[in-house]
């Protein structure tokens, strides 16, 4: 689960990480009041669950409370489109008003789970403020990495090594290594999957501050953090992904035209590849899970069909506990007698009660092509397009 910059900064502040002074505002008047309290030059920052706000006009430097009010007025209620939001953008319902900082250097600091190293990796770069993916791609030598042993934890020398690697000067080595240690603790305490400070700023007066903060919580550990539930902002979530979460279906919206409903994440990934090989592109990833029932299958299919980009649906099921007849009943429940009655659906079904399921679908009036193996799936998608 993602949270806003202002929420992440509150958590960081409590964890001993230096952040600029500021407060969130949801109206222009509140923004003015915060700027008045700060009593100095400020920045007004659109709060959306995406980066790239600076380049998209979502961050405004202001000198007076009136300017803060105007900036908030211009941002609140709009939809901000950045390279990370996709063309549909994200609604700006709040702004963070915080003290403007005199930037001397912009650095990058990020903590993520590295599956290969089986633990947290701390990444840092002197090329802050830039897209770190670009740095990794074009100038990998500028990206410093320290893998943290999960048993030993982050060791003091690792923080110092990063500090020296960034060449921030002897005075800031200790503050930076302390900050890295505190970030690591925040990461662990909250079961984060990502904690990114870009830019980490060295100020003209020689301090280091987290000028931006991106925090993402690991969904599978979220049950341990009921208190963090209040930080959820569903206005920032894709409506179909939100609906899928309620239905307990793992769904990721993509931008192609072939909707897919699959059981098992591995089979779902393979199915995306098959769609790609057919020359089409997938509209989503969807794993309905092994323990699904008829209603869950039906809701998953309704979610897929609600995506206006979908022209064909591919259902690829290897039945175990999830039986073929149950799948067929779910499909019929979602489609028969609805506006989706004539939608093109390609079904590949194997395993428990697959024959029963296929018979049920054949007997229906739906526009269904039944296929036997994955090779035919690609053909059937091509034929239906
Ligand atoms: P993002 O574009 O969504 O990642 O938003 P950031 O919070 O990273 O802000 C983008 C850029 O705005 C930063 O890289 C800075 O260059 C600039 N910026 C943000 N806050 C300040 C500030 O207080 N002072 C100055 N001088 N620049 C700032
Ligand atoms: Mn940033």
What do these coordinates show?
- By secondary structure, the protein is of the alpha+beta class.
- The protein folds into three domains: 1-19 and 103-237, 2-Layer Sandwich (D-amino Acid Aminotransferase, Chain A, domain 1), CATH 3.30.470.20; 21-100, 2-Layer Sandwich (Dna Ligase, domain 1), CATH 3.30.1490.20; 238-384, Succinyl-CoA synthetase domains (Rossmann fold, 3-Layer(aba) Sandwich), CATH 3.40.50.261.
- Helices cover 35% and strands 25% of the residues.
- It has twelve helices and 18 strands.
- Strands 7, 8, 9, 10, 11 and 12 form a six-stranded antiparallel sheet that branches.
- β7 and β8 (119-125) form a beta hairpin.
- The chain starts with a helix and ends with a helix.
- The mean pLDDT is 94.
- The structure holds guanosine-5'-diphosphate and manganese (II) ion.
- Manganese (II) ion (MN) binds next to loops.
Mean of all residue-level pLDDT scores? 94
CATH fold annotation of the largest domain: D-amino Acid Aminotransferase, Chain A, domain 1
Query: Which structural category do the helix and sheet elements fall into?
Result: alpha+beta
Q: Measured on Cα atoms, how large is the radius of gyration? A: 25 Å
Q: Report the CATH C-level class of the largest domain.
A: Alpha Beta
The shape, in one word, is elongated
Query: What small molecules are bound in this structure?
Result: guanosine-5'-diphosphate, manganese (II) ion
Helix content: 25-40%
Architecture of the largest domain in CATH?
A: 2-Layer Sandwich
Report the total helices: 12
Oligomerization: single chain
How would a crystallographer describe the biggest sheet?
6 strands, antiparallel
Low-confidence stretches: none
SS strand fraction: 25-35%
């Amino acid at each position: 689960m993602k949270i806003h910059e202002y929420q992440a900064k509150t958590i960081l502040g409590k964890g001993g990480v230096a952040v600029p002074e500021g407060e969130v505002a949801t109206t222009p008047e509140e923004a003015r009041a915060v700027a008045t309290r700060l009593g100095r030059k400020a920045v007004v920052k659109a709060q959306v669950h995406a980066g790239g706000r600076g380049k998209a006009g979502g961050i405004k430097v202001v000198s007076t409370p009136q300017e803060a009010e105007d900036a908030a007025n211009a941002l609140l209620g709009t939809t901000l489109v950045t390279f990370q939001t996709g063309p549909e953008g994200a609604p700006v319902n709040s702004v963070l008003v915080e003290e403007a900082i005199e930037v001397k250097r912009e650095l990058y600091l990020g903590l993520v789970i590295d599956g290969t190293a089986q633990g947290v990796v701390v990444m840092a770069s002197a090329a802050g403020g830039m897209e770190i993916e670009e740095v990794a791609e074009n100038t990998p030598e500028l990206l410093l990495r320290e893998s943290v042993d999960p048993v030993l934890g982050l060791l003091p020398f690792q923080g110092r090594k990063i500090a020296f690697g960034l060449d921030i000067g002897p005075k800031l080595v200790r503050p930076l290594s302390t900050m890295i240690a505190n970030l690591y603790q925040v990461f662990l305490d909250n079961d984060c999957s990502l904690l990114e400070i870009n830019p980490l700023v060295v100020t003209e007066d020689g301090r280091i501050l987290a000028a931006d903060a991106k925090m993402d919580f690991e969904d599978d550990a979220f049950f341990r953090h009921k208190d963090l539930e209040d930080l959820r902002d569903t206005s920032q979530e894709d409506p179909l992904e939100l609906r899928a979460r309620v239905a307990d279906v793992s769904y990721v919206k993509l931008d192609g035209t072939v909707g897919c409903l699959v059981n098992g994440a591995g089979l779902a990934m393979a199915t995306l590849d098959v769609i790609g090989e057919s020359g089409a592109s997938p509209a989503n990833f969807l794993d309905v899970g092994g323990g699904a029932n008829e209603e869950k299958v039906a809701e998953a299919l309704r979610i897929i069909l609600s995506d206006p980009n979908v022209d064909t649906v591919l259902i690829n099921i290897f039945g175990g506990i999830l039986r073929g007849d149950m799948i067929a009943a779910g499909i019929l429940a979602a489609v028969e007698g609805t506006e989706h009655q004539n939608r093109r659906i390609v079904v590949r079904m194997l395993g428990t009660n697959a024959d029963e399921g296929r018979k049920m679908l054949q007997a229906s009036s739906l526009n269904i092509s039944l296929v036997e193996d994955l090779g035919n799936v690609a053909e059937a998608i091509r034929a239906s397009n």
